[in-house]
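#structure-requests
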Amino acid sequence: MIIVKKKQNDPSEIFWSFGIINGRLAEFFFRNLKNKSQIQGHGYVKRSKYKTKREQKIIDEDTKKYHFTYCNEKYRRMKIQP
């Protein structure tokens, strides 16, 4: 599987990233609306599914930035502990 991240240009496009949601690794899909991002959905994944160094590096970079909780159909960003 080849992973390519898109640049965020068109607000109608849907993008994806890795993150920690409810304490588990997940891919989440989001849309940029004006100066805000809106998460459209997520799916839990296993890190072992991604084997290349590039994929592992992307997972490491993204999970340092994105931590969320999901409850009652709402996503809330968590503060990241240093």
